[in-house]
Write a structure and sequence with these properties.
mainly alpha; 3 helices; 80% helix
């Protein structure tokens, strides 16, 4: 089943920010411009934030999808 999903600016911004934090954290782990101990601490923090906010981001997508399916059925 193919469908289009419309997200508001807040939901889209939240999803983009969580994915960016996760990606930036992973990028820091492989970079070498910052001292290793500090880099690892920052990277782990960003990865933790990105991972922890994955559930609310997925929920936002699920709710938006359910809302659009409900509107389509009406």
């Amino acid at each position: 089943m193919r469908y289009n999903l419309t997200l508001g600016a807040r939901e889209l911004g939240f999803i983009v920010a969580t994915r960016a934090a996760l990606a930036f954290g992973v990028g820091l782990l492989v970079a070498d411009r910052i001292p290793a101990s500090r880099r690892r601490w920052i990277a782990r923090s960003l990865i933790a934030v990105g991972a922890a906010t994955t559930i609310p981001a997925a929920r936002a997508i699920f709710v938006a999808r359910q809302r659009q399916l409900s509107d389509a059925m009406s």
